[in-house]
Amino acid sequence: MGGRQRGYTLIEVLVAFAVLALALTLLLGTLSGATRQVRWSADAGRAALHAQSLLAQVGVGEVLQPGRSDGTFDDGRYRWVLEVAPYVDPELPPAVTVDPFAPQMLALQLTVTWGRGGARERLQVQSLRLVQPDPDTGLTL
């Protein structure tokens, strides 16, 4: 028996397991971050679709008037707030007289939030609408 048997020592096996555990931890952390990004992307895309749908319906079949309204989508998962106000062009001086029968430009600001409603969980869309007044009542349509 001139030769000595060669094998791994207990310390070498423990070091190998520690390196493997560290590599798996880093890999799983990366996959977890990717999963969060995919989820955020899906939520933001769905919020954009809800916002587009809501803006397409605003003022259709109803009188569009300045004010604030709110509601929810998907059983409360997405919350929205719509603010409608007369549009004021910052480049033009304020009008002295306003014709109640002239078309009026309204500014719409829609905010859709989901989750906790933080900065990354909020979508804000702004739009303008030209509305014609109703000749009988003077209200905008």
UniProtKB/TrEMBL annotation:
Keywords: Cell inner membrane, Cell membrane, Membrane, Methylation, Transmembrane, Transmembrane helix. Its main location: membrane. It is a single-pass membrane protein. It is found in: Cell inner membrane. Belongs to the GSP I family. PANTHER family: TYPE II SECRETION SYSTEM PROTEIN I-RELATED (PTHR38779:SF2). This is Prepilin-type N-terminal cleavage/methylation domain-containing protein. It comes from Luteimonas salinilitoris.
